[in-house]
Design a protein that fits this description.
This protein is an alpha+beta fold. The protein has 12 helices and 8 strands.
Length: about 400
């Protein structure tokens, strides 16, 4: 059974992640928010340290997206606190510092999660130590990943990819991009596969970098693929098209990454609440947990409500990550965590700006920036609406065709 306390072996990791967020990320947070598209060079050394930590202990994750595999029938290890949980805990602390910086961390991209989740042993060796972005979204395909129109056609020893990808996080800075494409549009989601495309491959063109509302430290790219030839060994997972297995395994990535996006939202939510607590205290409105909410000032009552939502989001996130470590099907829990944490983060950030008044609306404090950063956490890795749809399908036992 899951233990809600931080596992003893992860406490040093959590402490180090918090110290890094406080001493490295927070001090340069505003700098790179204002200098959009400028690469945070301070993160290079930090990424190197994380690489060393990960090499030394496979049970301790870094700050970005990872994947862990375990045989669901293997009961010999009992309950396990592994990479998914440790990574979620470190992500919470790091995103308390700055979300955009965490997304800019070298070799910690969402594409790395796809490789870790479904790559074979040879691919794991070939792509080890390289930074991988993830390219799913297209101009006509956002929340409905099954509508992907980028095509992949087998030609000898290569797949030929054609299409357009947008909103690729770290697309400019990464070494590799995991591109989702379909082998046969008529077969729907079953024919969608993921391909590792190396930067510099002919036919793989960077079109532009996006200007964004928040997470400005992170680059977001758009790509055009025109007769881009990718070695067939770079297809992740099973190359066979099996109509009985939707997405043929690539959706395993989301079961690992959605809890991590939820963890990002939990970290940012906590940052907002801690700042709001300082503001309330400076105004002489300390929270008294011995009194019911309706007997306290309105601002304090709202603060207590936000704390309750935060705690619910945090617990759902820990549950989803723990289930992934223990090879328990967690698609429902991953979507619950992502939906709750994303919505809570946006609501809390905007409410804190409102309650803080002029303090929250100026660039003299980070609340203004956090309110902009928060919105993406309710959008990427599946929007709020998509998560609620997935949850409804799981609870009602409906397929995607039956409940749209």
């Amino acid at each position: 059974m899951i233990n809600l306390d931080i596992p003893r072996k992860f406490k040093p990791l959590v402490r180090q992640a918090h110290e890094t967020a406080a001493e490295v990320l927070r001090p340069i947070s505003r700098k790179y928010d204002q200098a959009e598209h400028e690469r945070p060079v301070e993160l290079d050394m930090l990424a190197a340290v994380i690489d060393v930590m990960n090499e030394g202990n496979s049970e301790v994750g870094g700050t970005g997206a990872t994947g862990v595999r375990r045989d669901a029938n293997d009961k010999s290890q009992g309950n396990r606190n592994g990479t998914n949980l440790s990574t979620a805990l470190s992500v919470i602390e790091m995103c308390w510092g700055d979300v955009g910086m965490v997304l800019s961390m070298p070799r910690q991209g969402l594409g790395n999660a796809a490789i870790a989740s479904v790559a074979n042993d040879d691919q794991l060796k070939r792509f080890k130590g390289r930074w991988a972005a993830m390219a799913i979204t297209e101009p006509g395909c956002g929340s409905d990943s099954a509508a992907i129109r980028t095509t992949a056609r087998l030609d000898g020893d290569h797949y030929v990819l054609n299409g357009e990808k947008i909103y690729v996080t770290s697309g400019d800075r990464a070494d590799l991009v995991v591109v989702w494409a379909t082998l046969d549009k008529s077969l729907g989601r079953a024919a969608i596969k993921s391909f590792v495309v190396e930067k510099g491959t002919p036919g793989f063109e960077l079109v532009r970098l996006e200007h964004k509302l928040g997470i400005r430290a992170s680059d977001t790219a758009a790509f055009l693929l025109k007769d881009c030839r990718v070695p067939k060994e770079n297809l992740l997972g099973d190359p066979a098209v099996n109509p009985e297995k939707s997405f043929a395994g690539v959706m395993q990535t989301f079961d690992n990454t959605r809890p991590l996006v939820a963890a990002m939202a939990v970290g940012l939510t906590r940052a907002c609440l801690e700042e709001m607590a300082h503001i309330l205290e400076s105004c002489g409105m300390a929270v008294d947990y011995c009194k019911p909410a309706h007997r306290q000032p309105a601002a304090v009552s709202e603060f207590m409500r936000m704390q309750a939502d935060y705690e619910a989001a945090r617990l759902l996130t820990m549950q989803a990550a723990w289930m992934a470590d223990n090879a328990r099907p967690n698609s429902l829990e991953a979507s619950l965590a992502k939906a709750k944490a994303g919505r809570t983060c946006v609501d809390v950030a905007l409410k804190c700006v409102e309650l803080a008044g002029s303090i929250g609306y100026t660039e003299t404090a980070l609340l203004e920036k956090w309110s902009r950063d928060a919105k993406i956490l309710d959008i990427f890795e599946g929007t709020q609406q998509i998560q609620l749809l997935i949850i409804a399908r799981r609870l009602l036992g409906k397929s995607s065709a039956e409940l749209k």
